[in-house]
């Protein structure tokens, strides 16, 4: 039983395809299939249920063993990084889970500074919902994640990054341009574009606290689509300033009812964190410590 077969099997599950796994690993599809079949033969049990129409799915045993394989692969990666850092030949991979606005607005800043110090470290990004990021931690898919603190469990450590204020977004020329602060009550007669994505709960909470029901004209999942609809004058919306501030041809207003989501880096206990990830946390802490001091004052 070899580490290489664990890596192949894990990559097949990660990509959802023997063909895509082969491309990622620079192997032929036949070699990937043989590696998985060889692993099943060694274990004496099927790990996958294969279906010509539906592809494949994990067996119950496959699901359980996958977690152990990923744990072994993670430890192997840490061993390689420890050796590389000791010899000043930094190498390795950091797998990061994030939600869309954080991927666009927070990660580039950290990675830019990080790569100046450690140019040989590679990154793999996974983008999803708050819940998916937590699940990726539990299944060993990611090493570090950008999360919202309110949605966290107690098994992960947190490094606070910033407070992301919820703001009103409206088209150019709207009556709200004349107001420095917008009362939530003023929104109830406005056509509203309701987000269906990961920050919907924050918007619902704002309206619940104000005891009003918005005039919802559209419910939209994609943040970029919401922005485009606001630009075209189809309605107003409430969303995170982190994302909306960089959107063209829309204006932002502060609510009288302040609501923020607290964005943080989540990571396992330090003894289980690789040297590359520890260095990443150090860079993030240096970049965002000033922001946190401002927010705490």
From TrEMBL:
Gene3D superfamilies on file: 3.40.190.290, Winged helix-like DNA-binding domain superfamily/Winged helix DNA-binding domain
Annotated keywords: DNA-binding, Transcription, Transcription regulation
GO molecular function: DNA binding; DNA-binding transcription factor activity
Any one GO cellular component localisation term in the record: cytosol
Keyword Nucleotide-binding: no
InterPro entries per the UniProt record, alphabetical: HTH-type_LysR_regulators, LysR_HTH_N, LysR_subst-bd, WH-like_DNA-bd_sf, WH_DNA-bd_sf
Residue ranges occupied by any HTH lysR-type domain in the UniProt entry: 1-59
Family: Belongs to the LysR transcriptional regulatory family.
Protein name: LysR family transcriptional regulator
UniProt organism field: Paenibacillus elgii
């Amino acid at each position: 039983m070899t580490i290489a077969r664990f890596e192949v099997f894990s990559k097949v599950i990660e990509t959802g395809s023997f063909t895509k796994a082969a491309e990622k690993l620079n192997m032929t599809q036949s070699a990937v299939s043989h590696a998985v079949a060889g692993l099943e033969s060694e274990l004496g049990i099927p790990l996958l249920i294969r279906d010509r129409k539906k592809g494949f799915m994990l067996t119950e045993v496959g699901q359980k063993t996958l977690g152990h394989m990923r744990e072994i692969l993670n430890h192997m990666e840490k061993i390689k990084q420890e050796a590389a850092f000791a010899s000043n030949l930094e190498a390795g991979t950091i797998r990061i889970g994030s939600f869309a606005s954080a991927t666009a607005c927070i990660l580039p800043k950290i990675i830019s500074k990080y790569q100046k110090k450690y140019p040989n470290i590679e990154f793999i990004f996974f983008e999803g919902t708050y819940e998916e990021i937590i699940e990726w931690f539990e299944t060993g898919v990611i090493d570090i994640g950008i999360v919202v603190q309110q949605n966290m469990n107690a098994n992960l450590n947190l490094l606070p990054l910033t407070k992301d204020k919820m703001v009103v977004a409206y088209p150019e020329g709207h009556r709200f341009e004349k107001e420095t602060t917008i009362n939530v009550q003023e929104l109830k007669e406005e056509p509203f574009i309701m987000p269906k994505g990961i920050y919907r709960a924050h918007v619902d909470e704002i309206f619940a606290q104000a005891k009003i029901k918005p005039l919802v004209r559209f419910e939209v999942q994609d943040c970029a689509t919401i922005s485009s609809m606001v630009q075209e004058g189809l309605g107003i919306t409430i969303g995170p300033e982190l994302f909306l501030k960089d959107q063209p041809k829309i204006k932002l207003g502060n609510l009288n009812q302040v609501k923020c989501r607290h964005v943080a880096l989540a990571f396992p206990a330090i003894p289980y964190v690789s040297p590359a990830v520890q260095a990443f946390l150090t860079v993030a802490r240096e970049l965002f410590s000033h922001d946190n001091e401002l927010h705490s004052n």
